[in-house]
Amino acid sequence: MLPVSAEVKTSPVQKANFCSRLFVWWLNPLFKIGHKRKLEPDDMYSVLPEDRSQHLGEELQGYWDQELKRAQKDAQEPSLMKAVIKCYWKSYLIWGMFTFLEEGTRVVQPIFLGKMISYVENYDPNDSAALHEAYGYAAGLSTCVLVWAVLHHLCFYHMQHVGMRLRVAVCHMIYRKALRLSSSAMGKTTTGQIVNLLSNDVNRFDQVTMFLHYLWVGPLQAVAVTTLLWMEIGISCLAGMAVLIILLLLQSCFGKLFSSLRSKTTALTEKRIRTMSEVITGIRTIKVNAWEKSFINHITRLRSKEISKILKSSYLRGMNLASFFAVSKIMIFVTFITNELLDNRISASQVFVVVTLFEALRFSSTLYFPMAVQKVSEAVVSIRRIKNFLLLDEITQCYPLLPSDGKKIVDVQAFTASWEKASETPTLQGLSFTVRPGEMLAVVGPVGAGKSSLLNALLGELSPSQGQVSMHGRIAYVSQQPWVFPGTVKSNILFGKKYKEDRYEGVIRACALEEDLQLLEEGDLTEIGDGGTPLSEGQKARVSLARAMYQDADIYLLDDPLSSVDAIVSRHLFEQCIRHGLKKKITILVTHQLQYLKDASQILILKNGKMVKRGTYSEFLKSGIDIFSLFEKGNKQSEPSSALGTPTMISESLGPSLQSPRPSLKGAAPEDQDPENIQVTLPLEDRLEGKVGFKTYKNYFTAGAGWSVILFIILINIAAQVSYVLQDWWLAYWANVQSDLYFGGFVKEDEDAVFILNWYLGVYSGLTVSTILFGITRSLLIFYVLVNSSQTLHRKMLETILRAPVLFFNRNPIGRILNRFSKDIGHMDDLLPVIFQDFIQTFLLVIGMVGVMVAAIPWIAIPVIPLGIIFFVLRWFFLRTSRDVKRLECTTRSPVFSHLASSLRGLWTIRAYKAEKSFQELFDAYQDLHSEAWFLLLTTTRWLAVYLDVTCAIFVTVVAFGALILVATLDLGQVGLVLSLTLTLTGMFQWCIRQSAEVENMMISVERGIEYTNLEKEASWEYEYRPPPSWPDEGWIYFINVNFRYSLDGPLVLKELEASIDTGEKCGIVGRTGAGKSSLIAALFRLSEPKGGVFIDGIWTTNIGLHDLRKKMSVAPQEPVLFIGTLRKNLDPFNEYLEEELWNVLEEVQLKEAIKALPSEMNTELAESGLNLSVGQRQLVCLARAILRKNQILILDKATSNVDPRTGELIQKKIHEKFADCTVLTITHRLSTVIDCEQILVLDSGRQKEYTRPYDLLQNTDSLFYKMVQKLGKAEASALTEMAKQVHSERK
């Protein structure tokens, strides 16, 4: 799916004439298509030019910038509200006037009605003048209804349109701001929070604009109605209005309560979604550690807190809806009782005028006005949150690109800086150096020395407290944890540059990507998913290096690009890319590969942010300083996982946050200059087809309550409706009695008359009270059941998601899974119960009213039947298209979030390449795509509503004229009743049909949720057969003919593997990048089921539950995953170990000093995904976590790849001492770490090539292992051979 291009269908609205716009005829072709087949994204019309995200965003941004200037000048806090009002007040005010006009027509209707009824009351067959007058009134009535029908929907549609434009503009601003956040600001916010602003907060704008005008139209209309009532029945009308005022006051209290509940709920929702996003990104870690149950419990606890708040606000909403149901009845009742007590006479025409006037108030004052109060209070909260985000610090671009004289240079003088303003020890202190074109500066130092921080300082991400940096030239940057954005491999490398074949081929060769691209089915057009799948870590590292090379910049900042590839590739990259490809450039290389230092022009050694030594390699040798003594010898290397890279964090906030000794970086890429390179985005997710089935409804309701409760609700609904309808019916009889009294048919003082009147009033009061009681009970019950359903569904979805195999997470981008947990669950919590309740209420009202009308005047059935048929045909025709539009709207929303998340991860790279503009354009393209669907959603609902109301207007005309024609046969009460009901029915009937369509659209969220409760599951966590608690006590592992693939249709990544690892053996596993080393671990842990067998201590791994298997092996992964919380909680999530044990293990992984230096030691709060630790330190924390479990089998999957060689070796030594009797599997690229292992397993493209002792492999000059060692260079190779020999002789 391409970002919007010119040849997309232009919207027919632009060419439509006045009538077509008024009655939405221009949509008919779309409905025809939707009727024939499922709508596709290509069927949508392109966005109107004035609705383009870029145009809207820049317009509002202009007003916001003015507001910021004004606030600065007056030393006040800027107000986003003012900027929004300045931007939109003109267009919005015009529609306000129309709303006023439209509500005006509602007030006039009862007057015409009254005149018609008084004609019936004083009916005289011979008076033709009166008859013509009555026809005039009937015509007036019909016209009013028609004008109202057209105006009402026109206003609503245009007000929603303003809401949409406001939402799009604010989203544009939020994204623009996210691209400019400074590092300190990133610490104050999280991806979860920004996603929440984009998914929940901005939606308030869509809702608030619909109702805002009713804040002034409602009260004005109430005043007009009161005046008319006063003219009809005098002072007793005030009693009825008093009821309304009391109710509105009550509702404004509700509004206050509501907004406080809202902000509490939002905080809880945010926490749940943040945890959810961490779970999804860290799913591999959770699975291999068998932590699913505890995470389910943790999220369920958060969810129940959230639900308790949601229930409270739902009850408030329920009361609101119940009052809407009953308020007009209470007002009418109070008015007539007062009238009775004041002994005023009243005629039938007056009775019905009063009834219809009160009904006219029903929507605007009792539904829209409280809605407006509630939505405004919610919107104010949201605007405040968005404003706080927009006021966060921005990064200051401090360096000019090129000096006037065209000299390219990097010059750093006495540079000091720290991530935390507050910290006493700066991150970097007193650094000075100069690098000119053609020179390479190598930066080395132990873990956490400040190497990455130095590059950040050069990028301008870390501003100096002293000293200065001058960078002259265009910058290219490769981050330590490689980052790719969703798209093709090719678009990741071109990164918006024009495609030049020879240059591109050269870069591919230099970055050793040729073989890898041949292995991928689609070559360089392979789609990369949300976390870089299907590329392995090493491939991602090389793609991001290729991107930098292709840019042809002047200054290259490379943050340890060689650590995730094997020795052979590493040598190739260094020779071809760094030495040859960049020989005329300024290169600053951070590395742990000490064997390359002799090629550097200068070497800078950092420790704790200070410069230990700077000079050339020969100077170091002359002065007798041995570089290696600073860390000890060893080539630091690592390797990626073989097939599917683990999904990276969606919620990687960038840059450091609290107490950062050093931040980590991730990079992403933009598209500019050449649009052809960026056409790719992930395909939209599958949408379900057809109507929402009965089964979905059944599952939804029964999730919340048993059948008995559901039956009870049905009965209560019927009871409420019956009492409601009887009240109308009774009123007609009472009107007849009143009319007789009025015209002196009988006298009030008669005992009979008194008895009859009291009896009438008594029954009337009883009916009113029961209407209120039943209405409230049923409202609260329905809300209780539906919110419960939402909770149950969420729990089921959560359990299913955590039981899904890892493959599911590789295939679905995080944005898509989160969309179901944030957006769809949000719909089930907030919108669905309200709409459902509203629909049930109006549906029963309509049925009741039609029943009463037909009972009163049977011939009404003649127009009612075709009316019903037309309505249902319209609804059926509409839903076929509308369902697809709604589903499209859901699926086009995901890319907006995925793009935001991916840009946040790659923020530093985007800025280094100056690609913000093109990324913003891509975001706007996604927004426009979503706007296309949203615009259709607005217009299709309006299409339905207009046709329904026009049909209703025709119905009113038929009934009005029919009643006048047949006047001689009718009784007074019946005419009044039927006419007043017909008027009420106009708004009601179409509202009912629209709500039913809306319910079905909303049920799509439920359907999407239920779909996630039926995912395929991995094997069960525990079987009936449990292994003995001491298992595996020896730890011998036997692979028998193992074949392994990640998915049923995927390629084999392990082929016929046979190997036996004895008790307590230390086995090294090596091979080039992508050889299947990490897949071996995946097979061992059954992340996908292997063919063949794995036998551990006499038990087949497939015969026991996954938890029983996974708990008994510890693994330290290559991609460190940490969760938000304290460091202690990350080491020991379930408090199983003593403080002392934790300190011991930290000492073993050489982290004790670093942790002691933190302000609150082990209780330091980690930022999102552990960003206040360096990448190396995070790896060590994960390693400590694995060691703590003291299992018989320990697996190190490149666990020290981002750690300097010295630390790596110390750790390896410690592990060998501590785990002397355990089986240890070490996967590595740093051959020195496995040379002292008993056995070495060499893998190549998924096959086992060699498996024996290292010394024997080195004796055989044809072996792959021998060749790998020779690639390291002579000195290193002979040292390794010597070591192997020594170990061999010791073991003899």
From TrEMBL:
Q: Which InterPro entries match?
A: AAA+_ATPase, ABC1_TM_dom, ABC1_TM_sf, ABC_transporter-like_ATP-bd, ABC_transporter-like_CS, ABC_transporter_C-like, ABCC4_TMD1, ABCC4_TMD2
Molecular function, one GO term: ATP hydrolysis activity
Keywords of this entry: ATP-binding, Cell membrane, Lipid transport, Membrane, Nucleotide-binding, Translocase, Transmembrane, Transmembrane helix, Transport
Any single Gene Ontology cellular-component annotation: apical plasma membrane
Q: Work out whether the entry's keyword set contains Nucleotide-binding.
A: yes
**Superkingdom in the source lineage:** Eukaryota
Say which enzyme class the record assigns. Answer: translocase
Q: Which PROSITE patterns does its entry note?
A: ABC_TM1F, ABC_TRANSPORTER_1, ABC_TRANSPORTER_2
Q: Which cofactors, by name?
A: Mg(2+)
Domain ABC transporter per the UniProt entry, residue ranges: 410-633, 1037-1270
Region Disordered: start and end of each range?
Answer: 654-676
Location in the cell reads: Apical cell membrane; Basolateral cell membrane
Biological processes annotated in GO: lipid transport
Spans traversing the lipid bilayer: 134-157, 208-227, 233-254, 318-338, 350-369, 700-720, 763-787, 831-850, 856-878, 944-968, 974-993
Enzyme Commission number, as recorded: 7.6.2.2, 7.6.2.3
What is this entry's stated membrane topology? Multi-pass membrane protein
User: Could you give the subunit structure recorded for this chain?
Assistant: Interacts (via PDZ-binding motif) with SNX27 (via PDZ domain); this interaction accelerates MRP4 internalization.
What is the protein's given name? Multidrug resistance-associated protein 4
Q: Which organism is it from?
A: Bos taurus
